[in-house]
Amino acid sequence: MAAYNYYLSLTTYLEGIQQPFSKTTEFIAMEYDVDSGLVVHQPTGTHIEIPENAFQDSLGNAVTGKVTFKFREFHSAKAAMLSGIPMQLASDRGQFMQSLGMTELRAFQKGEELKLRQGMEIKVDLASTAMPDDEFQLFYLEEDKMWNDAGNFGTQGNARRDTALANLPFPSETPVDPVPDSADFIFELTGNYKKLPHLKAFKGVSWKMIMENDDKIPYWALRLDWDKIKIVQLDKKKSLYRIDFAWAHEAKKGKKYSEECSIQATPLLRGKKLKKALALYEKEREKYEVMLALAEEEEQRLRKQADLINSFRVREMGIYNIDKLQKMEVYAKVDLEFDFEEEFSPEFNRVMLIMVMEETNAVVKLNAFDWDEVPVCNTSTELIAVLPDGDVARVSPKQFEQKINRDNTSEHFLRKVVFTTERIDANVYAEMIAKETKEDVFL
């Protein structure tokens, strides 16, 4: 009887969060005054709103003063695997969760974990990698052990991101270089100074014509001997002028001919004025480039956010998951053996095999007694086993697919497959995955 009970203890799956490594998916922690409430916005697009005076202690007393809110979100199978949060139903391990986003919310004061007060709700807009279908549900990990239905959620576009993108403050105009380049059209005004004495002020001054992209240079206008030339200042700061040309002539038999033309131009500077203008141009250009770089950086940051968000309200702190339940019997099952089984017994050492299916955002855990229950799934699968000697034994998705696929596996027969694993120090592997999932921005 003692031996049988020991066997049962070995084959039983532990409930709740079973973190496989000392390293886990990190929380974001922020301290705030509970009287003021808190709004949290993440680079993924996730948005959380905590109302004022939302928490109570273990005795049911309303909490005042400073509170530390801790939050993390999971958008990849590897991040979920690193956390140790279960992705299978304890009541039916033949089903696993395909996640469209998971989040964990905690609050503490002086080391004590807090609860939400009666009637209080936290609004959560959780970033989503895709549009969920009707099979997806919102789950809550009751007492950090059992997944239960958590009510409704709604999916919509990321309006905050779209509004922010539309209102990005890009610099409207580039500084104007006072020194012309080879593409600029340069000209001088000529005319009868007796008839047009006001032109004397611009004698010998070169002008740069200001043109829009589709403008053509009016060479014909600059060849005529105009009767009237009027110069009107449009913008003193930019030294921008409009030059109006007019010409009229009466021919024989009283027939009249006339032409009119207007262009925008800026006078080119010389000497001290040019030196001063160049110094100002360099200063304005540097400021423009800084502003432009900041705006482009903000645009890149915003575009990394998710296109969609799943919105719901929580009345309890803890872990929430938007999932679709999938059955293990996807196609067929295989019986696995590994090279490390020659060193020690995986059954007596409680070695857990973790299937990480990144494409479907799912994590399946199997103890050594169930390694003949591994499903042949039509998705990329990585196998991870944490060994007693402090190593991780890994089978890459490519290696898994080469040995286990629909072409070489029959749905009618149980096939034995032996893997030679890659051995990695568990701490090194955990650090590598933590860095990978942290940089895996929508991602």
Descriptive report:
The structure is a single chain. The chain has 443 residues and is of the alpha+beta class. It has three domains: 2-168 and 305-323, Chondroitinase Ac, Chain A, domain 3, CATH 2.60.220; 186-268, no CATH class; 329-439. Helix content is 19%, strand content 37%. The protein has seven helices and 28 strands. Strands 1, 5, 6, 7, 8, 11, 12 and 20 form an eight-stranded antiparallel sheet that branches. Strand 16 (228-235) and strand 17 (240-250) form a beta hairpin. The longest helix has 33 residues, at 271-303. The protein is elongated. The protein starts with a helix and ends with a helix.
Number of helices: 7
Q: Report how far the terminal alpha carbons are from each other.
A: 53 Å
Number of domains: 3
Alpha-beta content class: alpha+beta
Overall, the morphology is elongated
Average pLDDT level: 86
Measured as a percent range, the helix fraction is 10-25%
CATH topology of the largest domain: Chondroitinase Ac, Chain A, domain 3
Largest sheet: 8 strands, antiparallel
Name of the CATH architecture of the largest domain: Sandwich
Low-pLDDT parts are: none
Q: What is the quaternary state of this protein?
A: single chain
Question: In CATH's first tier, which class of the largest domain applies?
Answer: Mainly Beta
Tell me how many strands there are. 28
Q: Tell me the Rg in angstroms.
A: 36 Å
What percentage of the residues does DSSP assign to strands (E)? 35-45%
